[in-house]
Design goal:
Number of domains: 4
Number of strands: 19
CATH architecture of the largest domain: Alpha-Beta Complex
Oligomer: single chain
Radius of gyration: 26 Å
Number of helices: 23
Structural class: alpha/beta
Length: 612
């Protein structure tokens, strides 16, 4: 695996560091501001004011909802429906983003005196996006206002049906519009539509619904109630923001940071039950907990059964009923995991036996009857293993449905746009797409995307790479550094967890295998220490005695899923390594404390043997 230093502008890093030195938290620790300045610069933080807001996000940093094009028209119509006691229909997607968006907007409308029903399509029976027949049934039932959440930006036919029936349609979405612009609707609220100058372009669908709720409450509720309810909604939008893998910068960082903090004290019965089945009731919630324990259980409803269960979970007041729903979501998630395992194993076997698939620059793999609720996750697993764009398709006779995921260098939605004629439907983002097409066109899609990718990617682009933020000698891993890094949390897309490289590290004891998959190591700085960042040079040179003392300290390290590699390439005490790692805190009562979490390592012995 290649190790690549993340680029950043040294001048900007120093500018940010100088500003942070004025912060009382750092002015007695000269090295920390320089270090944070480098990390912030690599995350495209432009100035000191933005840096301070990044490190200390607050609710008053939220943007005005009215900066979103279409917001005033949308709020005027919703408020009119509330005043006239008109029923409304919220039409949302079946994933975490869509279902939580429904919860946020429906609750806000009801708190402001209105009434809103909801519709979530069934993933298998209905597919993605707005359907004309649903709008026709809503119209027949007397609905005169439909609000979409997390969908609708390409629903031209559905919008025409609403217009024909005299139903007002408000489209709220965050997906990229197509070449034909936006649907004909009363209002379109999407930061990515042409002409919208909203500062945070990458909020998720629930984030857009949150802004609508924010604007509505500003009109209808007192300031005290607004603040309290915004913090309540922040818990839900944080889950959606992290689950949808949108960049955790700008307003998204406010959602995630404040929402995770608020999740420490849940009030909603459904949220409490969800945290309990995810075994997260007794500790602060992290972005990793949301991504791998909370979101999959919410997603399981839409993937495996009926996503409406999620809205009931967050709406129910009875703790016993909330527990029943949460337990059902937990069971559905277990079924999803088993289905995912089966499909991924079949995909890996197919790729390993088919050289054309193995050599493809964009992998397109299909199977008959694969569960459509799981193929998106399967595509992610293919990208992780083979380091190239991947589309996974479920064929059902003459029809096929697929999901795709990509690598950072390849814009997958643009790739699909280049062969739009092959699809009956497609949409998504730069690195995640969904689509449907006739089964007979799968081979044409495979050939086209491989050729398209070969024109835009090199073989080097497809080699696994680990990006790191700085070189850092082990003796400079201190509690002060660890606590400063906590200000960078939460981590996720757009704000990766800082990765460091330390050179010439000594292995002090044989690696200890843990649960057959992992390995625990004990490391120390080499005789001369490792490379140091400019941020720590001055500190390390102050006292040679202190540096020597620090080099005598041993550092525990946990290598996740590297046991097999260490068994094949044994390491022995005294071996010298280069290690890439993040910093973690082990809560164990006996051997807890700061430890290294290994991302990769390179053995000096192996390197010397290879060069002979």
């Amino acid at each position: 695996m290649r190790w690549l230093l993340r680029p950043h502008t040294a001048a900007r890093a120093e500018l940010l560091a100088n500003g942070l030195r004025e912060n009382p938290l750092f002015n007695k620790k000269a090295a920390i501001p320089s270090f944070l300045g480098s990390l912030l610069a690599s995350r495209d933080v432009q100035d000191v004011e933005t840096a301070e807001k990044f490190l200390h996000p607050a609710i008053d940093h939220l943007h005005s909802p009215y900066l979103l094009t279409g917001m005033k028209a949308a709020l005027d119509r919703i408020e009119a429906a509330i005043v006239r006691k008109e029923p409304m229909l919220i039409y949302g997607d079946y994933d975490v983003d869509g279902t939580t968006a429904i919860v946020i907007l429906k609750t806000a409308i009801e708190l402001c005196g209105g009434a809103a029903e909801f519709h979530v399509p069934h993933r298998i029976r209905d597919g993605y996006d707005m359907r004309e027949d649903v709008i026709e049934r809503a119209s027949a039932a007397g609905i005169r206002l439909i609000i979409s959440v997390d969908m609708g930006i390409r629903a031209f036919a559905a919008a025409e049906t609403a217009h024909r029936l005299g139903v007002d349609l408000i489209v709220t979405d965050h997906h990229l519009p197509g070449q034909d612009g936006v649907p004909k609707a009363l209002a379109v609220v999407n930061p990515n539509q042409h002409g919208c100058e909203y500062p945070c372009k990458f909020i998720c669908g629930a984030g857009v619904a949150f802004k609508l709720a924010q604007g509505l409450m500003e009109r209808r509720l007192t300031g005290k109630d607004q603040q309290r309810l915004l913090m309540s909604f922040m818990k839900v939008v944080a889950i959606a923001t992290i689950a949808d893998s949108v960049p955790l910068r700008g307003e998204n960082r406010i959602f995630a940071k404040l929402g995770l903090e608020a999740l420490r004290s849940p009030v909603n019965a459904g949220l409490k039950a969800l945290l309990e089945v995810a075994q997260l009731g007794a500790k602060p919630i992290t972005s990793t907990d949301v991504a791998f324990r909370i979101a999959p259980r919410i997603n399981a409803a839409g993937r495996m059964d009926v996503a409406g269960d999620v809205i009931e979970l967050f709406s129910v007041k009875d703790a016993a009923r909330a527990g029943e729903i949460a337990a059902r979501l937990d069971q559905l998630n277990a079924e999803r995991q088993e289905e995912e395992r089966r499909i991924v194993e079949a995909i890996h076997a197919r790729i390993e036996e088919d050289s054309a698939l193995r050599e493809a620059f964009c992998i397109v793999v299909d199977g008959e009857g694969w569960h459509r609720g799981v193929i998106g996750i399967a595509a992610t697993r293919v990208v992780e293993r083979y380091a190239r764009p991947a589309l996974v398709i479920s064929s059902e006779g003459e029809h096929a449905h697929g999901s795709g995921r990509s690598i950072p260098l390849f814009h997958l939605l643009n790739a699909l746009e280049s062969c739009a004629e092959l699809f009956t439907r497609f949409g998504g983002h730069s690195h995640a797409v969904g689509f449907s097409l006739p089964s007979e066109r799968i081979q044409d899609l495979r050939s086209h995307l491989d050729a398209y990718a070969r024109m835009r990617l090199t073989r080097e682009d497809l080699e696994p790479a680990l990006e790191f933020d700085a070189e850092l000698s082990l003796e400079n891993v201190t509690p002060e550094l660890f606590h400063a890094l906590r200000l960078m949390e939460p981590y996720g897309a757009g704000n990766h967890e800082p990765v460091f490289v330390s050179r010439d590290v000594r292995l002090l004891a044989p690696p200890k295998i843990v649960k057959e998959k992992h390995a625990r190591l004990k490391l120390a700085a080499g005789k001369h220490g490792g490379c140091e960042t400019a941020a720590t040079n001055s500190e390390a040179s102050k006292k040679g005695e202190e540096a020597a003392w620090r080099r005598s300290i041993s550092y525990p390290a946990m290598g996740w899923r590297i046991a097999e590699r260490m068994q094949q390439e044994p390491l022995f005490p005294g071996d010298m390594l280069d290690v890439a790692f993040t910093l973690a805190y082990n809560e164990h009562p006996e051997f807890g404390g700061i430890e290294l979490s290994l991302r990769d390592y390179k053995s000096k012995v192996a390197a010397q043997s290879a060069s002979k």
